[in-house]
Amino acid sequence: MFDFHMHTRVSFDGRDTAVNMAKAAQNAGLCEICFTDHMDYDPLDPNHKLHFELADYINEYDDLEVPGLTIRRGFEFGMLPDNRDQFLQDVSLRSWDFVIGSLHFVDGLDVYYPRYWEGKTPYQAILRSFEDTLQCVKNHDGFDVLGHLTYLGKCDANPEKKPILYRDYREVADEIMKILVDKGIGMEFNTSGLDRCGDYLPGVEYLRRFKELGGEIVTVGSDAHHADRVGQYCAEGCKIVQDIFGYVCTFDHRKPRFHTLKFL
Ligand SMILES: [Zn+2]
Ligand SMILES: [Zn+2]
């Protein structure tokens, strides 16, 4: 089983060491994981540091080995419509196994917090984030998967903690997924929404549609920020992905690998 999205203390919002996270992965029965710390940028406040330093990353991971566990090294880039140059700079810092492109800020505001949601209905707030995601996937190239497409579902400030349904945002969701397919970029099936808004990020309907549109690459990740969440719901997530696509993807040196898993 795989978990291709997790954060250690290398991330501004992580607390646990890589050793503890990797041991938790081993205990959870995972065979391959990827660390994906934040390279995020606050568009309105350049002094608000949300990205890691390469030296800290190297110290935390480069000598890490756990028997029976394959450990990959990547990062989660915080896309903005106009930070393509920053992305290219971060990608060129070293060789990575896997790069997630995610959206955490819309119109300059962190969507996790109330200010973004003020003055908008939940529908407007979510639609606006899809529109911005569309702009980002148009403007950016070279990441491996789009992270947690329906991230707003689990955000603390979302007054309706409920699944963001494909049918309610079909047009813009299709546009986003078509661009991903055209660019050979995959999607992430993020399990962190299950106990926060009752759905994967994004839900199964998005995956089915992604497949219909020609999408072939899907990874599964817990987005754990603590060791006790490593691998959470990843077995269930991998099974769903395999039922739809026939395999589950991991990445090694930025190349997708396609695995067919045995489920009991
Ligand atoms: Zn994220
Ligand atoms: Zn994350």
Strand content: 15-25%
Secondary-structure arrangement, i.e. CATH architecture: Alpha-Beta Barrel
> What is the number of independent domains?
1
Helix content: 25-40%
**Overall body shape:** globular
How many strands, which pairing sense, and closed or not: the largest β-sheet? 8 strands, mixed
How many beta-strand elements?
12
State the secondary-structure class.
alpha/beta
Low-confidence stretches: none
Q: What can you tell me about this protein's structure?
A:
There is one protein chain. The chain has helices spanning 18-27, 54-61, 84-91, 114-117, 122-139, 170-183, 194-197, 204-212, 234-245; strands spanning 2-3, 32-41, 49-51, 70-78, 98-102, 105-106, 109-110, 145-146, 186-190, 218-221, 248-252, 255-259. With 264 residues, it is α/β, with parallel strands linked by helices. Helix content is 33%, strand content 20%. It has a single domain (2-259), classed as Metal-dependent hydrolases (TIM Barrel, Alpha-Beta Barrel), CATH 3.20.20.140. The two termini are 12 Å apart. The structure holds zinc ion (ZN) (2 copies).
